[in-house]
Write a structure and sequence with these properties.
Distance between the termini: 71 Å
Radius of gyration: 28 Å
Strand content: under 5%
Number of helices: 12
Structural class: mainly alpha
Order of helices and strands: HHEEHHHHHHHHHH
Helix content: over 70%
Strand order of the largest sheet: 1-2
Number of strands: 2
Largest sheet: 2 strands, antiparallel
Shape: extended
């Protein structure tokens, strides 16, 4: 009887322990969604805080400088003691100039890389090349900046003797090199997601591999490819260190790529490093420029999402 009583106690103990473990798991299951909600809320609140800070400081700037002058004046001379001018256009032109040169470099090379990886490379080659491409995206941008200043610019000066030390061409090319992995990797993902049956259908019609890639796969993956290009250009527009190191600090409205320029991001860096005192109009101008940059990149991201949805192919 003593043995039977001990066995009953052991079973009761096991049931009790199982119930405790189940309660613990149940409590963890109930706590996890709450913790995930907190982390999501932190991200959202941080974004709201950043936007509110930008808005408040930008409003302070526009209490001192008219919106009309900001968007229509063609000179950006905030440090002038006698005739300060706050026209954003020269900074905008400098930024778009860099993005345009970067697009000329990155789009053809990135798309060619994506076509090779998706349609021609063996699985082993793809496993080697794709991570190497993505490592390129992880190089610090300050390193790219010094690469542009100390290697690319002297190389270009051999070809274009009139090229200034600080110019738009050199940082534009290097920004293009920087965004190649983004275009290549995202475009390759889009092309690889096209079903195999579509390729086989093209081959059955007598198309070559190149014709299949250009006339069948590229159009089928167009939404992903365009979205990757728009996102990469958005990254190029927001690039800071390369243009700060190699582009110079001369706001200009001309289209010359051989002379010094200034972009929106490089101006923010210039002022943030101590060229203006806290509370001055110049200090608040970096928030107005930052807000312009924020709106610009936001529109680019919305455009990328719209294009992705508009041209998406359902298989």
């Amino acid at each position: 009887m003593a043995v039977k009583h001990g066995s009953e106690q052991s079973i009761q103990k096991m049931i009790f322990e199982n119930k405790q473990q189940k309660n613990k798991r149940w409590n963890v299951e109930k706590a996890i969604p709450f913790l995930l909600l907190i982390t999501a809320a932190i991200s959202v609140l941080t974004t709201i805080g950043i936007v509110l800070t930008l808005i408040v400081e930008t409003v302070t700037f526009f209490e001192r400088v008219s919106i009309k002058e900001f968007f229509t004046a063609d000179k950006w001379y905030p440090f002038s003691a006698t005739a300060a001018s706050y026209g954003i256009m020269p900074l905008l032109v400098g930024t778009l100039k860099i993005a345009f040169i970067a697009a000329l470099v990155a789009v053809p090379i990135g798309l060619a890389s994506a076509i090779y990886l998706s349609e021609y490379a063996s699985e082993k080659t793809r496993r080697i090349i794709k991570p190497l491409l993505e490592i390129l995206a992880g190089v610090p941008t300050i390193v790219y900046g010094f690469f542009a200043l100390t290697f690319v610019t002297p190389l270009l000066r051999d070809l274009f003797p009139g090229l200034e030390i600080f110019n738009a061409l050199s940082p534009g090319i290097v920004v293009g090199i920087m965004i190649i992995p983004m275009i290549a990797s995202l475009s390759e993902d889009a092309m690889s997601s096209v079903p195999r049956s579509i390729r086989e259908g093209a081959y059955a019609m007598g198309a070559t591999k190149f014709e299949t890639a250009i006339k069948v796969i590229l159009p089928a993956a167009l939404s992903g490819i365009i979205a990757s290009v728009v996102l990469a250009l958005s990254r190029a527009i927001g690039e800071t260190m390369i243009v700060s190191v190699a582009g110079g600090s001369t706001p200009s409205m001309n289209m010359d790529v051989t002379s010094s320029i200034q972009t929106m991001t490089s101006y923010i860096v210039q002022v943030s490093t101590g060229d203006a005192g806290y509370g001055t109009t110049i200090y608040y101008s970096i928030y107005a420029v930052g807000m312009t940059l924020f709106v610009f990149t936001l529109l680019m991201n919305i455009l990328a999402q719209f294009i992705s949805r508009k041209f998406r192919e359902e298989y």
